[in-house]
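Work package 3, deliverable 3.1, input record:
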Amino acid sequence: MIKFLDLKKQYLEIKKEIDKAIFNVIEESAFVGGKFVKNFEEDFGEYLGIRNVIGVGNGTDAIEVALWALDLPKNSEVLVPANTFIATAEAVSRNGLKVKFVDCNKYYQINPESIEENITPNTSAIIAVHLYGHPANMKKIGAIAKKYNLKVIEDCAQAHGAEIENVKVGNFSDVATFSFYPGKNLGAYGDGGAVVTNDDVLAKKIRMYVNHGRDTKYVHAFEGRNSRLDGIQAAILSVKLKYLDKWIERRNYIAKEYLKKIKNPLIELPKVVNNIRHAWHLFVIKVENREKFIEYMKKNGIQTGIHYPIALPKLKAYKYLNQDCSNFKACREDRFLVSLPIGEHLKEEEINKIIKVVNSYKG
Ligand SMILES: Cc1ncc(COP(=O)(O)O)c(C=O)c1O
């Protein structure tokens, strides 16, 4: 079976370094906070070209914390793409803010036109998700935010290392967030996340908030919360960060092969904007009869994924919003989406097999 994701294989390739990193943390008992977290925060900041990186418990917390830090008016509306993982929207509701869904464009990224159509006097912020590792149109989103005086958050959970005109995502907003969930391009061996910003004042506030609002131990300036990256995860991430660019290059190579060699009228390939570096976290195609295609791939020994099977506005969880999104591209096309395997775990013959099998699909 060609796996959709193979974290064991990745581990075995860097086992020596990972085992040593974990051992060092245990040896020093630097389990929460401490030098391993600090080192990773500095390394990741340098990688992104961003001054402040604050490790947190996971990518969902990261968005929640980012929204909290922006101090948006209670009950104001935050624009969220209709096609993303639910975490992006959950973080809005959990801050006492209102989710307002917006549609995607042909790249499956948040659509700037839909953003503008959905702005009301009660809108306070936009969350741009760089879905699948493809950067959202931050130039247009930035211009809209300026025009309507809105805050912008980038959800970079799927886009570590992605770039717009040679600048890493995370640099195009007031505050940006990352997830280090194991399956991400840069994944820990458990949950992890980060909030990043060039705003030093905001960064200081966030750092205190995620550590019980404290200045120093037992001296608390305000009530915060507990959401911290732990030492073992940070040490693992420091090792994996060194390989991230190589892995992204490999993803780009595989995507290029797919884009060049998959030629099947029943398959619609993903579209890519110029002047970006795609992180290719996911390679999402469109196919009419998804269930049949997935079954066919499985029979031929290839695992696939779906990102995401049901657009957020159609979920029971968001019925209460009563937002009619039936004309959204995101809501009409969710049932056609299928993700092909992509990642450094794929061997050349596996890539060729995937291409061959997809090309032989007859519907
Ligand atoms: C787009 C997006 N946002 C947020 C998250 C939440 O991250 P986490 O699972 O680390 O909480 C994820 C990943 O799961 C995601 O894909």
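The chain has a mean pLDDT of 98.
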